Amino acid sequence: MEKKRFGEKTSWFWKWFLNSQVVVGLIVVLLLLLILLVFTKVSYLFEPVGQFFAIVGLPMVLAGILYYLMNPVVDFLELKGLKRQYAIILLFIAVVALMAWGIVVIIPEIREQIQSFINSFPGYINTLGNKADEVFKNMEFGPVQEVIENSAQKILETISSLTQNLSRATIQGIGSVVSTVANIVIALVTAPIILFFLLKDGRKLGPYLVSFLPTKTRKPTFKVLSEMNSQLASYIRGQLTVAFAVAVMFIIGFSIVGLNYAITLGVLAGFLNLIPYLGSFLAMIPVLFLAIVTGPVMVIKVAIVFAIEQTIEGRIVSPLVLGNQLEIHPVTIMFVLLTAGKIFGIVGVILGIPFYALLKVIVSHIFEWYTNVSKLYEEEKTADP
């Protein structure tokens, strides 16, 4: 009887505070903010860690991307009876041969096309200006024409100012450029070494890391790591495969319609396609520029090529390669791209989606664990009448 009265007396506190999802959520948020505040006060302790990752970050990222591309091939060769070390060496030789072919055949062609575009760029600008003048003369713009001319003049002045500032910044930042080149050279030298050991012993990495944890947490932690690895592998393989297919389709399409610099524009489109949703449209900016300079017929041809490429990519290539593996809403992807691009630049735009997918796996498992432990999200059982 006393227990019942005590329970009735304290039930309001349990109902409105201890058993309230809102209160518990606010407490969790408050604790996270306090942790972040403490980290900001002792951020100097983590500077050596940041410097370490600044040095090894690029080769680790390169090695990780190549690992997810090459590991399925190594596994396949191992299943066929070839020892894993020999399979890795054989694949390395094939990759080096492919890179040598690209250096000998593709890169000189791209360099020649870029040099030709740079030499022809002033002529393209003059042609575009003449076409704009013809349009303005043929159509009755009236006062709008003066506004457009003033805007164009301001744009040209802004571009000139930006060019001068960029030149000064380039001269002042020679030391930074040398440092960046040194980091790239170090990455190109160390990435193959890291890649070799990842391909050789990558399967042992997860169990090795989990072995440092308490016994009860090893199995769920390994499950989280496995899901993160699966998400990252699917995204990297899928995006690079789609990007390669997009590059090939654009190169073929631009070559058929006779657009200049087809190889360079196709490679650029494939690279920009690594940016979800926005990549193909960004790649079309220089294409439309060249098409407008060439003539209205070329604009129509380029539009047809773009429509065919988007249809094949959206209806065939992407569903077959990517599917819906990440289960991320397109609106969420847009917010992630905008936020990551604002904070980290082009690197954030390219790597924002896979890192968000990894964070989503971690948060979902933490929330699942919290719901099981707290018992706050269980539905109340209604008594039968």
UniProtKB/TrEMBL annotation:
Presence of keyword Transmembrane: yes
Give the stretches traversing the membrane.
20-40, 52-70, 86-107, 174-199, 242-275, 328-359
Q: Superkingdom, according to UniProt?
A: Bacteria
Task: Note the topology in the membrane.
Answer: Multi-pass membrane protein
Record GO cellular component, one term = plasma membrane
Annotated GO biological processes are: transmembrane transport
- Provide the protein's localization: Cell membrane
Q: Which UniProt keywords apply?
A: Cell membrane, Membrane, Transmembrane, Transmembrane helix, Transport
Main localization of the protein described in the UniProt heading: membrane
Sorted alphabetically, which Pfam families does this protein's record hold? AI-2E_transport
Family label: Belongs to the autoinducer-2 exporter (AI-2E) (TC 2.A.86) family.
What is the protein name stated in its UniProt record?
AI-2E family transporter
Task: Tell me which species this is from.
Answer: Enterococcus florum
The lineage is:
Bacteria, Bacillati, Bacillota, Bacilli, Lactobacillales
